[in-house]
Write a structure and sequence with these properties.
The structure is a homodimer. By secondary structure, chain A is α/β, with parallel strands linked by helices. Chain A has helices at 14-26, 39-49, 67-77, 92-101, 113-124, 132-146, 156-166, 171-177, 182-196, 201-210; strands spanning 5-10, 30-36, 55-58, 82-87, 105-108. The first copy, chain A, folds into two domains: 5-136, 3-Layer(aba) Sandwich (Rossmann fold), CATH 3.40.50; 147-210, Arc Repressor Mutant, subunit A. The mean pLDDT of chain A is 95. Chain A binds a DNA duplex through α7 and α9.
DNA sequence: TGTAAAATCACGCATTTGCGTGATTGAATA
DNA sequence: TATTCAATCACGCAAATGCGTGATTTTACA
């Protein structure tokens, strides 16, 4: 079979850009015809030539528009292209933004050319190659977003009522729904407010959702 | 220097368990003294012997308590141990639960013994080795959790007021904070409710947070 | 230049909410 | 056995809320 993968490189450092291109073109299956030293140049060319690369190797630290900002623009012009970030920036914010913008891989610049080629293949096969420290960051961010707090020791009844609050029901509606007097619901609400240390329905709802209390 | 990494294996398949142990013990730096065929056996032994392994290789499909349920228990007994999942289960739910429970790596069983050893080293160095398809799943789940909806075409002013709502302020407080008449705030609120298609403050707040409107 | 949308302000009213201040019952726990 | 705590119910009141029904002024844009 004759696989053919088209790659473009967007990287402002001339040396690294050329060495990436060279490394890629050593492979028979993977081909790099175009490289760009800025996001603007790449966007112009892609728009004009209606270029649809399989893979875009993208640096973050670019002159003018940075790599992260570039991702949505690239995806507009060529939605099927997979984007692999290759950068020195491994801080949470950049990683977070790149992933949310839709990058398919996140590699650091210390990588050998063999591993970069392997990563391109992985992405083409539906994978998401990542530097293992980046992966750790992603895992930690992911976990932190999904920890269920439990520190307020709400009773089951209170959790039940809190979740109805979050659904937008009034005291009266809650009372009807779970067959209680509205006085009882009121009483539960006060206890909930006390435990959550809030003084309004709004704050309780915010806290419940943001801190994943249910 | 003389690194020494203690590994235990929890895996019910005898063949795979033994082959893992053997592969690990071929390395001079990494050592596997104990293996277990069930979570319960591992927990008992760890508790009794006060074992503190550096790495726990953990299967998901175990008899009795499954690997995911095991993670919190293992972390209680030996909080410093890093857990690497090695399994055939690559569905979203298992991946999600494993990560949230605090796994440091997620590998599939088709991996060569060299790569497993390399993964152990990576975890010891603070990384999180992951099968690239698993990584893709994590990336997708992560991205999906962080997409900002924008489909309600709220104006800037409305977003501002909505965010103050979420903070728990009353109309009067909002009015004072942004130097408006409370009538004006009321008016904005009604427009927000209309755009979000809700009829209460509670529902608006829930929708704003859950759908990441701010 | 005209028009539509956004932002501002206003009154009245029925309903809802938060809170102070109680009480009773039953289950769990020390 | 005593005591604590969750769950239930009750009254009253000041404040806040949602909504109907207006109006005027900016701002954007076609």
């Amino acid at each position: 079979m004759n696989i053919h993968i088209d790659v473009i490189v967007i990287e402002d450092n001339e040396l690294f850009r050329d060495s990436l291109k060279e490394a890629i073109n050593k492979s028979s299956d993977i081909n790099c015809k175009y490289t760009f030293s800025s996001g603007e140049a790449a966007l112009d060319f892609i728009a004009k030539e209606e270029l649809v690369p399989d893979i875009i190797l993208l640096d973050i630290g670019l002159p003018g528009m940075n790599g992260i900002e570039l991702i949505p623009e690239l995806r507009k012009l060529s939605p099927t292209s997979k984007i692999i970030i290759i950068t020195v920036h491994d801080d949470d914010e950049n990683v977070f933004n790149a992933i949310c913008a839709g990058a398919s891989g996140y590699l650091l610049k210390d990588l050998s050319s063999e591993k970069i080629l392997a990563s391109i293949i992985e992405v083409m096969n539906g994978g998401a190659p990542m530097n293992s420290h980046i992966a750790k960051k992603v895992l930690n961010m992911f976990r932190d977003q999904n920890v269920k707090s439990n520190g307020y020791s709400l009773s089951e009844r209170e959790k039940e009522i809190l979740s109805l609050l979050v659904e937008g029901l009034s005291k009266k509606q809650i009372a009807e729904k779970i067959f209680l007097s509205h006085h009882t619901v009121d009483s539960h609400l006060r206890n909930i407010y006390a435990k959550l240390e809030v003084h309004s329905r709004s704050s309780a709802i915010s806290k419940a959702i943001k801190e994943k209390l249910l």
